[in-house]
């Protein structure tokens, strides 16, 4: 059976890329960025559940695609497996309030941390890579 890029796959990477690229806000205004996301995580309102639900569904879809196409995967589908597993664990840890994960998140959102720029720059670079991959797949699919 032939390898194929499914219609939703470029949009998967574009969506995750944009989600990570929004963290540029954190480099521009640490206080409002940290305040917004800590508020979202602590209040667990409709935005939290919509965001987490969309991310979880996308991860499950990606992992299922990886498994279904195991013998004919592209290299980038490994991102579904490892990135999806990480994100599903992250969502689980946040939802259940795992103490060590909460400490990690509070450390990541500590706007006085000397590591702030390194942490959020990493996520921004990851977002740029994933967004670029999505655009490449979109172009490849149209050819």
Structural class: mainly alpha
Mean pLDDT rating? 94
Rg on CA atoms, Å: 16 Å
Looking at how many chains there are and whether they match, the oligomeric state comes to: single chain
Number of helices: 7
Q: How many extended strands?
A: 0
The major beta sheet can be summarized as: none
Written account of the structure:
With 143 residues, the protein is mainly α. Helices cover 78% and strands 0% of the residues. The longest helix is centred in the C-terminal third of the chain and has 27 residues, at 116-142.
Question: Main traits of this protein?
Answer:
143 residues, 78% helix, mainly alpha, single chain
Secondary structure elements and pairings:
Layout: H1 9-21, H2 24-28, H3 30-43, H4 46-68, H5 78-96, H6 99-108, H7 116-142
Task: Please summarize what this structure is.
This protein is mostly helical and 143 residues long.
